[in-house]
Each structure stands twice: as C-alpha cells, then as structure tokens.
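Could you please consider the sequence and fold following this short note?
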Amino acid sequence: MIIVLKDGIGKDKIKSFSDELSRDYGVKVNTWFGTHSTVLGLIGDTQSVDIERVQANDIVDTVKRVQEPYKKANRKFHPDDTVIEVAGRKIGGGNIAIIAGPCSVENRDQICGIAERVKAAGASFLRGGAFKPRTSPYSFQGLRAEGIELLLEAKKQTGLPIVTEIMSINHIDLFADVDIIQVGARNMQNFELLKALGATGKPILLKRGLANTIEETLMSAEYIMSAGNEKVILCERGVRTFEDYTRNTLDISAVPVFKRLSHLPVIVDPSHASGIDWLVEPLSLSAVAAGADGLIIEVHNDPPHALSDGAQSVTPDAFDVIAKKVFHLKKALADL
C-alpha cells in the first residue's frame, strides 16, 4: 500500500503519522521524500488497514493498494529514478554508463591493456570475470582470487572502477575492494547469496536469468533490497527461446517494461544476448534507443584465442566505434 501525502507537511508530523501506522497495523513504513511529493510505503500484511480512516487524515492526499509482490523495487513506492553513483560515475537518471572488458581475466598484460583501451573509448567501468560459471566442468573456470587482484591492478593503473561476478556466498570477503558485484544469470535465484549481498551495501548488478520473467527478476532485486541494500542495477542479458541462430534472444521490450515497473537503473548485455560479435553494435544501439541506462560489453584484444566467449567479444577497435555511436545516439535522443 502507498500513501501520498499533501505538499508542505513537516517531517515531525510525517514521523508521528508513520509511527501510528506501524503501531496500529503492524506494518513497516518506508518514507520517500520526492521533489513534488512525499510517499509512504506500507510493507507487510496491509489487509487490515482501514483505507477510509487513513484517507481521513488531514495530511493524506491519496491511498492506493499495491498488488505487485515487490515493494522496494516498485516505482509506485519511489516515483523518481534511482541513480547509483560509484567513484563519481552515475548509473541511471538519464546517464549512460558503459561497462567493458574481457569475459575472463587471463593475465596482467591482457586485462591492463584492455582497460587502457576501453577507458580511452569512453567506458566508465572495467568488467572482467575472475570466477567463471561454465556449462562444461572442463572449460576455463577463471583465475579466481588472482583474477580479482589483477582487476585491482588494472583499476590502479587506469582509475576505472571494476565489475566482476560472484559465484558463492563463501567468496564475499574476496570482493571487499570490488566496486560493483555482479550476480550472473545462473545465480539470479540464489536467494541466500542475494540476502548476503544485501548486507554488503555494495552496488549489485543483477542479471536476469535466461528463463526468468520480469516479475521474477524484480523479486530477486527485492531480496537484495529487503536485506538493506537498495543499490541494485537490473541487467537484461537475453532469454532462451526456440531461436538458435543467436546464443539467446535479447528481450528489448524488457527495458521499457522494467523502467515502467521499477525505479532501478536498467542496463543491457548485448554480448551474452547474441553470442555473436557483429551483433553487439546493433543491439547496443537498440538498447540505448529503448531507454537503457547503460551497457555491459565484452572486449578482448585477441578474440580467436580468448579463454572464454571469444565469439561474442569485440576487439578494442570495434569497441571504439560502438562507443562513439552509442554516445552520439544518446545525445541525439536527448536533443529530440
């Protein structure tokens, strides 16, 4: 349930009203102070809440029941876009953030060299897999802790904040210096991991599962947020369909749908969505046109010899072109 208050109500009066609601109905009350209004979000069993009684209070403008099971991620509770700031770089709220780097961290020269190139092209963050979930147990599984150390070295060299994927709740301590922790598609419903990440306070990049609905994705975000961490970035990375030409099928409609239902930033992964390097550019532009707040793109200096996902990785030269077009398109859309 959400309660929209009238303009000009003092904070003391709002707190007193919130305490009364909590006491009388046994619900938790979240308060959102917006530019033009103040919204109270009632979380818990709201069936016993007397709407007429609440509406009769002289500080109340409107009262609405919310049917969606996700509350903290719901735009109805938080009308303005959430903007997540990391090391002076913003994700959401009309900004465009590009996260770029190799699928897997392979060695020092590789990750540092790519970091220099993607930074020069305009990337805001460096991505790189230290722990790699692979379909085959015989495939390269990543350098693990050493991979994080190499990412931190690249960060020190270039100043780019780093993004890397966590696989297990047991690895959280290794991610203390990681700027954005990525939850991959396979772990989107690893609820114990999500709750643990909610206690870290770090920005979490949550990828949609390859067979999960939009509501299921928002419910996974709710797990993180309900544990106390509201710094969640949603990522559309393609879903599995009957089409087998591409690795997955990019659900471009998910971008405006996520943004309609939720206040959280939304980015798109065109690399995993397609699995094909030449599709990364058109899918990136499509995502920006659909309203995405950013992109996460796989870049490798030698894709044919990459230890993982070489077929979907673009070269640094190709990334230069993609980044230029993305920024030009974003500016053109802003000028419309």
Q: What stands out?
A: The chain has a mean pLDDT of 94. The CA atoms of residues 50 and 268 lie 42 Å apart. Residues 316-335 form the longest helix (20 residues).
